[in-house]
Design goal:
This protein has 113 residues and is an alpha+beta fold. The chain is built from 2 helices and 6 strands; from the N terminus they run ααββββββ. The protein folds into 2 domains: 36 residues, no CATH class; 77 residues, no CATH class. Helices cover 24% and strands 19% of the residues. The strands form 2 sheets. The chain has a 4-stranded antiparallel sheet with strand order 5-4-3-6, with no helix packed on it.
Amino acid sequence: MFVKRAMLAVLPLGLSACGGGVELMSEAMFMGQANDNKAIDRGFDAKPLTELQAGIWIDPNGCHNWIIDDGVEGYMDARRYPDGRPVCDPSAVRNSVGGTFKAGGTSLLGDPI
C-alpha cells in the first residue's frame, strides 16, 4: 500500500519534467517555426545539411539523387536542373553510388558500414 501511494505521489513529478518541452513545442508550432526548415539536421549533433558531404546515387531509371549519411540519419533528394526537371542520364551506370556521402558522420557515431 505504501509503495502504491509513493508511486502516485512521484508520478506527477516525473511527468511534469515533460511539460516544458510540450509547451515550447506548442509555442513553436503556433508561431509557425516547427519543422519549417527541412535543411537542418535535428539530431544531437545538429548542423545545416550544407555542412555535410553529399554523394550521388544513380537510380534504376538513370536519374541522379543527392544522398547524405551522417551515421544516424540519412537524407536523399532528387538532383534537379534549375527549372525543376530531374537530372537523368541514360548512359549512367544504374544503382551506383559516387562521392563521400558517409563522411558527414560524427566521430562519435560515424557510419561503420
